[in-house]
Amino acid sequence: MPRLKRFLSEVSDTMVPTTWWDTSFIPDNQNGKRELRNVFSEANELFATPKPTDLIRTLIGLSSDKDSIILDSFAGSGTTGHAVLKQNAADGGNRKFILVEMEENIASEITAERVRRVAAGYTDAKGKEVPGLGSGFQFCRLSDEPLFNEFGDIRDDVTFAQLADFVWFSETGSGRGRQDAGDTEATPLLGIHEGRAVFLLFNGILGDRRPQGGNILTKAVLDALPPHDGPKTIYAAATRLGPATLQREQIVFKQTPYAIEV
Ligand SMILES: C[S@@+](CC[C@H](N)C(=O)[O-])C[C@H]1O[C@@H](n2cnc3c(N)ncnc32)[C@H](O)[C@@H]1O
Q1: pLDDT score, position 180
Q2: Is residue 87 domain-resident?
Q3: Does 188 contact ligand 1 (Cβ within 6 A)?
Q4: Looking at ligand 1, which residue's alpha carbon is closest to its atom 7?
Q5: 132 C-alpha vs ligand 1 centroid, how far in Å?
Q6: Same domain, 166 and 243
Q7: Looking at the structure, do residues 113 and 30 belong to the same domain, yes or no?
Q8: What is the CA radius of gyration of the chain?
């Protein structure tokens, strides 16, 4: 592949950087680029100089314990996640990683997709099956604004969908999938997790737009909820149901906002 070569005499008054890494052992950015092209057989030129995983892996090997948590707050093409999985596979470690990427498309289509592929296995650009390194991750999206104000109350402009995402994550440890910020799903039933239905009463989701209307768990509200024959967790501003009714109906009541936590 043609490469631009710059000689010392052409570099005016700046210094050419030197390295104390043994370059016969540590791969360079060209290598990083090849690795990325291999994982994404669809041509990927988004990153001009992705780091080679073996460089990051060597740094991780030198500087971390087997149970360290590695943070990359400029995750880009996801080299760091890839390198952590490789190093764990090499030395039996249980390191975890946190990757932060601010560009939504990059985060979901490159960063997460690369780590997903190398963890689960993929077919490389040459059609060769590459076995997975194992392990996995959770994909979390930060909301544009904090959900709570300085007094711990839910902010006035928080939508049902935003709070629903947060409640679902705190109950299940996973996201509800890609959704618009708007109230796309007009149902208080957020989903069923391991047999338990999770309900959220907020912002008059049952159609009553008065302050607190429909956000208090009463017998009438309970009857109006989508039926679930099994245990239920119901988040609401308050409950008028007594302990005996809650137990009979298999309801765990959680008061918003106090019981919402991750
Ligand atoms: C140079 S790339 C990282 C390359 C990565 N180390 C690799 O090997 O692929 C930097 C990335 O950081 C992201 N970024 C820039 N500022 C950020 C910020 N404040 N928070 C999170 N991500 C950010 C950019 O969108 C870009 O994808």
Answers
A1: 40
A2: yes
A3: no
A4: 50
A5: 25
A6: yes
A7: yes
A8: 25
Q: Tell me if 100 CB under 6 Å of ligand 1.
A: yes
Per-residue pLDDT at 254: 95
Ligand 1: which residue has its CA nearest to atom 9? Answer: 77
H/E element holding 196? strand 196-200
**Residue 216 is which amino acid?**
I
Any ligand 1 atom below 6 A from CB of 74: yes
Ligand 1 pocket check for 197: Cβ under 6 Å: no
Find the 24 Cα to ligand 1 centroid distance in Å. 27
Please work out whether the CB of residue 51 comes within 6 Å of at least one atom of ligand 1: yes
Residues 183, 123 share a domain: no
Range(s) of the domain holding residue 37: 13-131
Same domain for 122 and 33: yes
Looking up tokens 């989508």 gives 226
pLDDT at residue 165 in the model: 86
Ligand 1 centroid to Cα of residue 106, in Å, is 9
Helix axes 29-39 and 79-91, enclosed angle (nearest 10): 90
Predicted local confidence at residue 16, as pLDDT: 61
Which among 38, 37, 89 has a CA at the least distance from the CA of 61? Answer: 89
Average pLDDT across each block of 10 residues of the chain; the chain has 262 residues. List them in order: 73 65 71 83 70 90 94 95 96 96 92 95 89 91 81 84 87 67 67 94 69 78 92 94 96 87 64
How far is it, in rounded angstroms, from Cα 36 to Cα 106?
13
> Domain end: 131, 149, 172, which one?
131
